[in-house]
Amino acid sequence: MSNVDSSSNKINKLFPLGIKIESVLGLLKALNDVFNKHADIFALANYFDLEADDLLPVLDVIELLEFALIQGGDVIITPQGEKFLKSSSSVKRQILRDKLKNFEPFKTAISILSKSSELKVEDVAKELENMGYSEVNEFGFDEKLSQTLIEWGVYAGILIYSSENQVFKLNKKHIKV
Fold it and tell me: Which of 110, 100, 122 is nearest to 169 (CA)?
């Protein structure tokens, strides 16, 4: 099996792992407030005292979430990005919940939890591997996967995490299965 969606013949994108929400929010805020919604990638990197290559994974996330467009070295905030920035915390979480549930690994976590009361990060990794995601074999994958599920999945209200048992549960208040 591969990570190809047979209905549209597109690869299901794996959400970039290990990227912090604060990094995405900080980048969006700077893009909006400091750069008036449009900046050169190198100017943004310079603003954050980073190399442009270090900024690319965060840019990948904001583009994937449709909060910004990247065109020819420029980053342009989208109307969705502006709406997200201006929203309250609860609306931000709702926006992220609606978007994240369509991306791996969240899609798989929700699927597993629709049939089981809890899961471990290894369960998600195994299912992703079965689906053909080669990233699963990269060094540190499980750790980054766990960090991403906690950071994004819990923040957005998709998942509940028990650090005591190291298991995830579905946040049934927000996700209906």
Answer: 110
pLDDT at 18 over 60: yes
Range of the domain at 144: 89-170
Q: Among candidates 176, 171, 147, which has minimal Cα distance to 157?
A: 171
Domain endpoint, select from 44, 64, 86: 86
Residue 51 Ramachandran class (φ > 0 left, ψ -120 to 50 alpha, else beta): beta
The answer to whether the CB of 112 falls within 8 A of the CB of 121 is no
76, 30: one domain: yes
Number of separate domains in the chain: 2
In percent, the amount of the chain with pLDDT more than 90 equals: 86
pLDDT band at 27 (very low <50, low <70, confident <90, very high): very high
Residues 94 and 156 in one domain: yes
CATH code assigned at 126: 1.10.10
pLDDT in the model for residue 177: 66
